[in-house]
Amino acid sequence: MTATDPVKLMKQEVGKAAALLVKSGSIVGLGTGSTTAYTIQYLGDRLKSGELKDIVGIPTSFQSEVLAKEYGVPLTTLDAVDHIDIAIDGADEVDPQKNLIKGGGAAHTREKVVDYLASQFVVVVDSGKLVDRLGSVFAVPVEVIPMAITPVTNAIKQLGGKPELRMGVKKAGPVITDQGNFVLDVRFDSIDDPVNLEKILNNIPGVLENGIFVNCADVVLVGEVVDGQPVVRQL
Ligand SMILES: O=C[C@H](O)[C@H](O)[C@H](O)COP(=O)(O)O
Q1: Which of 33, 97, 158, 229 sits at 20 to 30 Å (Cα–Cα) from 15?
Q2: 129 CA closest ligand 1 atom index
Q3: What is the ipTM for the molecules in this complex?
């Protein structure tokens, strides 16, 4: 099935390009989101055709776990492996230094564990995700344990951030993460030092993890549409 919407087309092409980087015998971190959904689908296709053999996936969310089962990608856990060969994951923003904001799907905590462990971390995005400076478009997702939501909200305001509790869609009340926590989407006027901001946010008691990923991505594949045709380039 080929997408017709240009953004979907870019996601599909870049998701497929990343799936082609996976070699037989690999332990693969399976990212979360609409772009890596295509990667997981193509990994399943490659396994079915016999072109790819003996891979196991480590899911970064319930979403990637469900998709892997649907497309026939065998799964394992971090308790059963001593390394990850390659992780493929999406992003909400990518800056020129390959720093990322992730967590549009509230999966950034598990993603950070898996993506940082991988020997090679491949990011897959459509061209609309490229920014000069992190925080230009997307707020920073911060996962917070529910009992600490008020003090964490206040602490983030003290830092100059504008936090907003993420609300569910087709679910009354706040989004609950795969770990049972809340998410604050935090806007900052300008993120000048993402390395420092990542640490500062994680130092607030009650914060589990935030969506700033620095010094982590090895390869960023960007899907674009040129003259009506999807192309993939490396950042
Ligand atoms: O929590 C979700 C993730 O960080 C996603 O990888 C990110 O939001 C990008 O998702 P998509 O590929 O749907 O744009």
Answers
A1: 97
A2: 14
A3: 0.99
